[in-house]
Known about the structure:
15% strand; 28% helix; two-stranded antiparallel sheet; globular; alpha/beta; Rossmann fold
Amino acid sequence: MEQTKYAVLIYPDFSLQEITCITSCLTVWFGEKIDIIASEKKAYTSEDGFSVIPNKTVDEAEPSDYVCLILPGTVNPLPALYDHKVIDFLQKGKGTNTVYAAISSAPLLLLKAGLLDGKDFTAGFFMQMADTFPFIDKKHFVHKTVVEDGNVITGIGMFFREFAQKVLVRMGYDVGDNFMTEGKCGYTEEELTFYWTEEEYKEFLEDLKGYTD
């Protein structure tokens, strides 16, 4: 069986919007599969109301199983921050080659797990948190949109596109110079007319038979 190289760690009130640029590109553009991991095998509700059921628990996986582990932000980081299963799972990844991609408030989890020790990072949390939690190393906090240091990529939530681009490029994918940007203002009719290749059209017709025969 082909190894799943990517995983997303979810927790209560996680943000889909902050990671779907990455996940949609990995799956739709590049044909990758993604494991969804959580503390328990139950439905987790995203901050915008979608229910997601993980296919693995933290007891069934290791960070080193993946080339990249993606951590979405959350408007309420405390449940994940005080979920010892989540933190223990992340701590197992110390010293591995796994790339950790954490956006918005998710770097808090990496900080608590010790995965950001000595590394520069950015995050979308409120600065009072840096005075509240002793595990936050303020001297390594960098006020930038996206920061890459060693095997960790961190980003601020509103810069999810730039974060996705940094992660995908790190993973070796060619996403072009204008990744998910607006592009030019005007388009010709030809540019807005789309065709499958002959092979893609044949595949579509074969799929269609399953509905019409």
